[in-house]
Each structure stands twice: as structure tokens, then as C-alpha cells.
Known about the structure:
8 helices, Rossmann fold, 7-stranded mixed β-sheet, alpha/beta, 238 residues
Amino acid sequence: xxxxxxxxxxxxxxxxxxxxxxxxxxxxxxxxxxxxxxxxxxxxxxxxxxxxxxxxxxxxxxxxxxxxxxxxxxxxxxxxxxxxxxxxxxxxxxxxxxxxxxxxxxxxxxxxxxxxxxxxxxxxxxxxxxxxxxxxxxxxxxxxxxxxxxxxxxxxxxxxxxxxxxxxxxxxxxxxxxxxxxxxxxxxxxxxxxxxxxxxxxxxxxxxxxxxxxxxxxxxxxxxxxxxxxxxxxxxxx
Length: 238
């Protein structure tokens, strides 16, 4: 199989000669623009706990790991801008859905500060919620997938905002968090520094949207094409 770096370079070259509309610039939708660092990588923390739903974190992980921006520099690390790691309350191995075992990279005691926080469905804890609340202060964006929205809402970051979660849990979410406006029938709901995705695959759409907000529509589309991901749920009109 062609290495993704070569594939994405080829896709970038093809886009450069495409006789169509001018390419979108990073943050073309200026209301929601996220500004990447001029140098270095963007640390992305995936908050996991027992029985974390596999696709909720593996889907967005795949998106961020496949992003390539050739004009950021000559080295592989410069061109692949996201640095991914897992964070858990304790250092021990966790069993996630389907029986897979995952050993977190960091605990809440020693995790580096993230610029993006991803919260999948999992059995959370008050300490993890506290860590999310504190880490989000300096993060660019904090996002949940599926019932990870419950943990995000417990931080207070969704108070007074619209949000969504898995469709089977919307009523329970509305009852538990009356200060949050529940949105139904949507793939995700975004704000300037917080966002929530519905269930399962919608986390992939939200991750692609975050790529769009950092690096523009063309980079996000190249990433989706590499993944052979056909949903257009991540595309937001600008």
C-alpha cells in the first residue's frame, strides 16, 4: 500500500493544478478559525476510561494521524501536524469496548498540556472531569463524541450552549443538563472552543471539521479522501 505521506503529497499536487474554484484558506470560516502554531505540532489528548467506545476515539485518531500539510516544512514531523496521546486517570491497562486492552500514554498527573481534547464515551470519574475542565482553559478546542458529552457537560463548559450526543441518550442528557440546549438530528454542534458530536461515526465528521478549522477545506478533504471516507457530514457552509 502506498505510504500515506506519498499519497497525500500526490493529492496536494493534484489539487494545485485543479482548474476549479480557488482553494480555501485555513480559517476561511473566520468565525470558527483555529490558528495552528507556526512551528511544532498540535498536541491532541484523548481522554479514556474503562469501556471507552472504540470508534469514538479511534475514528478521530485516524483523522488526525492522517493529516498532512506539505508546506509546513520539509520534515515528516513538520508536515504531519498533530501529535496524539491518550490520557487516563490511572496508569494501568484499560479494557475498552470489544475487549481490546489499551495502555494510556499519560495519566492526569503527568499529561502534557493539549491544544485539542477529545472525550469519547467511557466510564468517567470526577477526577477526569476535573482534568478536562482545567486542561480546557489553555486548549484551542475541547470536543466530545457520543455520550462523552455527559462528561463534557459536567465540566460546566456547555452551560448556556447548544450540544448533542448519541440519539438514544438525548432525553437523558436534556434531563440531566437543563442548562444545555439539546440539538437533535445533527452530526455535531460546534462553538468557538467547544464542540459535541453525536454517536460513533459522527466523531469522524467532527474531527475532519476541526482539521478544516485549522488548515482549510482542501487539507480536510485530502484527509477524507485518503481515508476513503465518503460522508460529507463534516462540511460546513462558509
